[in-house]
Amino acid sequence: MTTMTSIGAGRPRLGARKRPGATARDEILDAAAELFTTQGFTSTSTRAIADAVGIRQASLYHHFGTKDDILAALLVGTVDAPLAHARELRGLTEDAVLRLYTLAWFDAGQLAHSRWNLGALYFLPELANERFEPFRAQRTDLMAFYTEFSRAAVVAIGALDPADTATAALPFRLVESVINTRSDFGEPAGRTAVTIADAAIRALGWTGPPGEFEGPARALLNSTDR
Amino acid sequence: MTTMTSIGAGRPRLGARKRPGATARDEILDAAAELFTTQGFTSTSTRAIADAVGIRQASLYHHFGTKDDILAALLVGTVDAPLAHARELRGLTEDAVLRLYTLAWFDAGQLAHSRWNLGALYFLPELANERFEPFRAQRTDLMAFYTEFSRAAVVAIGALDPADTATAALPFRLVESVINTRSDFGEPAGRTAVTIADAAIRALGWTGPPGEFEGPARALLNSTDR
Predict the structure, then answer these.
(1) Do B170 and A199 touch (CB under 8 A)?
(2) Which of A128, A193, B147, B184 is least surrounded by Cβ atoms within 10 Å, i.e. has the fewest?
(3) Tell me: the pLDDT tens digits for A29-74?
(4) CA torsion through residues B6, B7, B10, B12, sign
(5) Which B residues, 128 through 187, put their C-beta within 8 Å of a C-beta on chain A?
(6) Residue B70, CA atoms < 13 Å, CB-side half-sphere
(7) Is the Cβ pair A203, B205 closer than 8 Å?
(8) Nearest CA in chain A to B206
(9) Measured between alpha carbons, how far is residue A110 from residues A34, A147, A176, B103, B174 in Å?
(10) Cβ–Cβ gap A210/B120 under 8 Å
């Protein structure tokens, strides 16, 4: 079906939408995510992104000033949902192990099943540029939540040393390993989020049966969704 | 000190070596590793690599036909030592948990303390090209060793389901998470290899005290070094 589609600040466009997303901005982000993760960031031009959306390059610039701006928006999109959940979970008086499990389970799930494997872009040398400082700060915040929740879980479990920072860093790294798995095999089938969240608490000394926290984590997340 | 340095198939060079390595080939690999990991693969030209070594571009081509060839050599260098150890460990009748621990401990250690964080290059979209099939095959072999050793360890520990492939994949992912940590913070201090190897067996259901296998792993590795 061919329709007239408004693309926000740009001119109307004749043609079907090629990309998922409610707005032209979303379509640009989706096209850029595909090209950055499959062709590489350096190799992708804003012209190629505009072509993949089916808009003019000038229209793209109504939404994003530079290619770096597009990358920054995509990167922030990988951490804002887990950060929001972490902030809510911190305020709760739930069991420390369940709190960490819930964050890891949600975050691993979104990394596993997002449309593109955007975490692979974390390894771009370009991210050292000042332009990406806001993203880096948000990711550091998320990492700090993981460390805080992990330390509390280590205390609650009582098997390992809560002062061991390398151990407290393991759950965050296990969750981000979903990015590595996707880079090798594409979107994972099955129960990745549960496997990863189970391993995250096991790495902190927990020894219960697999999947024990999945139901409680789901319930907790539903209860905090606004 | 200024010395006359032979650069293999190229012409002799007047000047101090700028790079570690016994041969010009090693110097080229070191310079390329630095530039690929800090400036990006796409952004690095063979000219820039030659400049960083202090040789002519023509001399570089005596050693490597293309930039892809340099990348392929660097990538293979990240897996050949752990693969050699995995082959030796498979032949041993040691405890299955110790065998997995030893592989993870060695591999995490070399990823943590190699001169450049070459694992960050695993995420390059270029690696899908046929040129890198030999590297991908070797990494797949290494992954298969991890999976085999992990399954045997799960059976030996007796707490989790040996048929659960996602669980058996965790040790390999934990070891490669060293790459992610280095990408964020540089070369890790402290006892990364022990923390990772401990977490690898804990993820498989092991519940002993931290560091228990470090001494035996070191002894086992020394006994297999030829």
Answers:
(1) yes
(2) A128
(3) 999 999 999 999 999 999 999 999 999 999 999 999 999 999 999 9
(4) negative
(5) 159-161, 164, 166-167, 169-170, 173-174, 176-177, 180-181, 183
(6) 29
(7) no
(8) A207
(9) 17, 19, 11, 31, 19
(10) no
